[in-house]
Amino acid sequence: MSGFSRSMATGLLLSTLALAACSSDDDPAAPVILPPLGVTTAPTSVSSIRVTFNSVAGDNSYEIERAEGAAGSFAPATTVAAPATAGTVTYDDTNLKVSTLYRYRITAVRGTSRSQPSSEASATTFAFGGNQTIDVTTDITTNTTWKAENTYVLKGFIHVANGATLTIEPGTTVKGDFNTLGASLFILRGAKINAVGRADAPIVFTSSRAAGQRQPGDWGGLVIVGNATINRSGVEIEIEGTNTASGTTSGTNYKVVYSGGTTDTDNSGEMRYVRVEFAGFAPSINNELNSFTFAAVGSGTKLSFLQSLAGLDDAFEFFGGTVDATNLVSYESGDDHFDMSEGYRGRLQHIIALQTTQLAPRTSAGSASTDPQGIENDGCNGAGCTNGFNTAPFTIPVVANFTLVGTGDIASSASAGGVGMMLRRGTGGYYVNGVVSRWARAAFSVRDGDTYVRAGSTAIPNLATADFALRNILLTENAAAFQTGGSATQNTFDVTGNALEAATGATSALFTALPASGATPTTATLDWTPPSASPAATGGLTTFAGKLATAAGTVVTGTAYRGAANPAGTKWWQGWTTYARN
């Protein structure tokens, strides 16, 4: 009886296995195929999971199915060929959602027969910065990738050097260490940065302090040094004179010279969807770093969708060079929002500056600026300018579709600030299709004869010959169109002849959403789109001519609207920019 029981049990087991692994057409003569064993899963990034399992001799392939979430339905992910000999099979599943649970099961295939699915295995992709924190203490001299699942902390003056490329994945957070004074990132001449984020996964450089405790000047900033030409000799990055290290000691504040470039088409890499927050620490008095510093950067470099938030010094500083940029945002700058000098000849289009207050910097980080402006442009000034303000190449940018909104308050404009556009010291440039609002001293300050001569020393510059012009700009709630008086030589342009329109009504009415003067904005209350009835929705210069057309090339085009946002276009700043004061 016992033998009969063992025989019956064996038969039942074989029948069960056969039923569990029968062919898809229920052919009783089909071979028994067991589902794969040893199925395991593990996250490898914010968007990938590695699936491994054991293969069996005789299998032809394996169908891998994936389900999203704890209750999602399975669907085919891929089919992989079986190895020639039994062993471990590895499959990397990519392009997944961040911080998301996925379940997997495997089916073995032999000819026309298939096993039942394996047991399930699950894993969750990493969250942004959710894997580990990595301290960066030394210079980067070989090609390096910073991964989105990690958080990187700058602990020193970190230089990308020796022709290396630093690649930063979308969604990566980089923190400047609050306790390492001046922690910053330099991309030196010949090196590159490829920091290409997405609107839903921007790359963020910020303070190591927690939200609510952050202040301007918590850390240094982001500096790119290229090989384009400038008009000044023998100059270093703005921390000139504070360099304490001899030679090029890794991770220290050694001298970084940016003059002497020779190649205007130089390529320092690409940055897209990148934020720099609470930067601008000063290694010494009046030597603050900027949020973004572009020193002699060439036109081969690509810059788009960049935001500076609550920096202590300038938000975007261009020292010479020829790099173009689009879709730039600056909220609450400690000094100028956009600063161009030393022969900068690039082209900027669709840029936003908002100033509502003067934020207090961290203790001992540096001093607040005495002259914060919306745009501050200079020619050549100081040592190394062989012909003073008239040293070539001249600063002649094209700046189009800009929205510059100030505090509207003298008390928060420092002793000499509160000007929408400060144009001086021999600068030129073409400034077109803009909105300049709420500047407590004036919309424009056109200083000194060396600047005015770029416009042909006339109130209505001739675009066929002039190197300087203000055209088709909407003005609201400014103390005056042009600054006059004072110790500096001031100049004015003809308002009507240059289509400089002084509109009535509140600045907030120009846009879909903008808090009233004196109110604190939020990310959600800033919508720069002009409604159809807004004067900013029309009045633009649609066709460029003369030297303006030549300088703009195919990079900057005319528009029917004024300001940074197309009334019929996308809200290009949404989803990746933010507003915060601490």
Structural class: mainly beta
Low-confidence stretches: 1-25
How much is the radius of gyration in Å? Answer: 30 Å
Number of strands: 33
Q: Number of helix segments?
A: 3
Mean pLDDT: 93
Helical residue percent band: under 10%
Q: Give the distance, in angstroms, between the N- and C-terminal Cα atoms.
A: 83 Å
Strand content: 25-35%
The main β sheet shows up as: 15 strands, parallel
Principal-axes shape call: elongated
Structure description:
This protein has about 575 residues and is mainly beta. It has helices at about 1-20, 450, 545-550, and strands at about 35-45, 50-55, 60-70, 75-80, 90-95, 100-110, 115, 120-125, 130-135, 145, 150-155, 155-160, 165-170, 175, 185, 190-195, 205, 220-225, 270-275, 290-295, 300-310, 315-320, 325-330, 340, 345-355, 375, 400-405, 420-425, 430-435, 440-445, 470-475, 490, 500. The chain has a 15-stranded parallel beta sheet that branches. Strands 12-15-18-20-22-24-26-28-30-32 form a ten-stranded mixed beta sheet. Strand 3 and strand 4 form a beta hairpin. The radius of gyration is 30 Å and the shape is elongated. The chain starts with a helix and ends in a 30-residue tail after the last helix. The relative contact order is 0.08.
Label this structure with key terms:
582 residues; mainly beta; ten-stranded mixed sheet; disordered N terminus
List strands and helices in order, with pairings.
Elements (H helix, E strand, L loop, with lengths): L1 H19 L16 E7 L5 E6 L6 E8 L6 E7 L6 E6 L7 E10 L2 E2 L6 E4 L7 E5 L7 E3 L3 E5 L2 E4 L4 E4 L4 E4 L7 E4 L4 E5 L6 E5 L14 E4 L43 E9 L14 E4 L6 E8 L6 E4 L5 E7 L6 E4 L5 E8 L20 E3 L20 E8 L13 E5 L5 E9 L4 E6 L1 H4 L15 E9 L13 E2 L8 E3 L43 H7 L30
Parallel strand pairs: 9-11, 10-13, 11-14, 12-15, 13-16, 14-17, 15-18, 16-19, 17-19, 18-20, 19-21, 20-22, 21-23, 22-24, 23-25, 24-26, 25-27, 26-28, 27-29, 28-30, 29-31, 31-33
Antiparallel strand pairs: 1-2, 2-5, 3-4, 3-6, 6-7, 6-8, 30-32
